[in-house]
# Entry
Amino acid sequence: MMQREILVILENKPGALARIVGLFHQRGYNIESLHVDPVTDIENYKDIEVLLNLKLKENEVSKLLITTTVSDNLLRQILRQINKLIDVLIAKEEI
Amino acid sequence: MKLAGNDILIQSLINEGVEYVFGYPGGAALHIYDAIFNQNELEHILVRHEQGATHAADGYARATGKPGVVLVTSGPGATNAITGIATAFMDSIPMVVLSGQVASHLIGTDAFQETDMIGISRPIVKHSFTIESAKKIPQVIKEAFYIATSGRPGPVVIDIPKDTTAPDKLFDFKPLDSVEIRSYNPPIEPDPKQIERAIEAILKAKKPVIYAGGGAINSNASKELFELNKLLNFPVTNTLMGLGVYPAKEDRFMGMLGMHGTYQSNMAMHNADLIIAIGARFDDRITNTPDLFAPNAKIIHFDVDHSSVSKIIEANIAVFGQVKNSLIELIKQLKAKNDLIDENLIKPWLEEIDKWTELHGLNHELYKENSDKNMILPQAVVQHVYNITEGKAFVTSDVGQHQMFAAQYYHFDKPRYWINSGGLGTMGFGLPAAMGVKLAFPEEEVVCITGEGSIQMCIQELSTCTQYNLPVKIININNEALGMVKQWQDMNYGGRHSESTYKSSLPNFVELVESYGHVGFKIEKNSELKTTLEKAFSIKDKLVFVDIYVDPGEHVYPMLVAPNGSLKDMWLSKDKKV
Ligand SMILES: Cc1ncc(C[n+]2csc(CCOP(=O)(O)OP(=O)(O)O)c2C)c(N)n1
Ligand SMILES: [Mg+2]
# Structure
């Protein structure tokens, strides 16, 4: 068990955040801290643009930082569950 | 073309190829209902309870592979649909649920019949939408159908504030051909390298098992599975959700596995050195205690959903993609290495499995009993139904002992013919699901194998069957008890039957169904069983309800020993445990 930080980039759409928070609760994972911002500094997300093969626009997506204490296996499962959400562009461990 | 929101909505559904909408009207949905009245391309089926609408749409979807469509009003209409949405979600069934909502300006004011449908349904949908304006309707409908039917299918809820379907505001309507959702890209084609690794393991296996589930049916992969096994000749087991994806009549088919799986399937899984999971998710009814599951097996897992792989049982080789596409690639690569397949390698294994089948396999000849000294066995009822329908009927079921007997003794040779709530285990599913199937296939025999407990949970739909003339057969395996509950109480609670019997309060089912205009039969004796069932099935134009009183003491076996058991630990009868 280790404290991890998860980065989620998701469409800035109504309900998108609630789905992620709901998923943590529903699957029995604990959220220790949560921080959400609209993404305005596009230039800092070049790596994600390359990874997803798309262009981001200002305020079109949100950035979520979640900290949680979990094992490696559970982290993998959480990331897969979040990535499965329709409005999520990417979820990964922030190292 | 200029149309109002309500007409845009219905037109968008028609453009998706929707034939039937299962629903129930109410205030917040009335604009939409008016648009339904003004067209004749899709038919609305008026159920008697919104739960019935969701299960009917679900049955339609399971039988056809096309999405089921539901329309309900806000508040109680929406909440009544929840059980059916959860049922579809657990079994990955494509469904689109349109729920009326109070007008936008009233949202959040606790208006009459306002509930937060998006919030209530969030954990049990694949995705959900709120319509913000009539202009967005075509886009939302297109996305909803795409999401519901692609990847791992599932239900999608669309909440529709009343003002967005107002008939007095017109908008330009342009149908959409397709949509793309940049944040949603379910895998389709497998990674050929993973297939290569899978083949390496397959060629080495001495004790392989193919374990195929509902995902293989969703992906329409039964033809490919069959073709694959013509090359491999591996033993095959299906989950409760997967029955029919591999023909039951094939020699290599071992029957269902898991909680009430056959002895040979469970033993084969436990002793396997290679398990090839195809669209199956290792749920707890399959694995028993995960730590004790198949201790010597390597796992190859084919699935479209990343989060299903290595969730409970770690996969050694994971192949992501539509299961159908993955099997096509597997077959292609395997054919190129055909000469490396050594049939002798698995011969001792096949012989071992045959021995298990001989030792403790199910008895498929119980139907031969015709003495009235003994009570009717529920298993024999299913065997008669199988014989009379020549194994060709669509069979829907409810939840309980009757469901397990149906799964064990009706042999399915084709996918989409066995229709039951596997994941959620929803009593009340069987009758409305049968209605959906019958609407989709009016010429086919549709049988609902149910119990007197389950049938009463959606029995109001007998009235819908009258209105739309849906001549399904209902086989009520009547043990005058919540049999499965009673079985657990017998086995784990010292036989204390807490609240699992009804004390002579059951209705006269024959009179009940006759009051709806249907035909009813009651059977209490073995000597009458075959002839009365044949008579029932000879009636083609009416719904027939056959109320069959069976031995209430009968249990479902095999049954896995739990907790702390493995797949080889089974009860085989009331006093025999292995
Ligand atoms: C809606 C719902 N409530 C409760 C249960 C728990 N449950 C599972 S099987 C069962 C008994 C079902 O009785 P019946 O339909 O008569 O079937 P039998 O087991 O007697 O064949 C119950 C209550 C359930 N699966 N679904
Ligand atoms: Mg019963």
About this structure: Residues B 400, 451-453, 479, 481-483 surround magnesium ion (ligand 2) (CB under 6 Å). The radius of gyration of chain A is 13 Å. Chain A touches chain B at residues 10-11, 14-15, 18-19, 22, 26, 52, 54, 73, 76-77, 80-81, 83-84, 86-89 (CB under 8 Å).
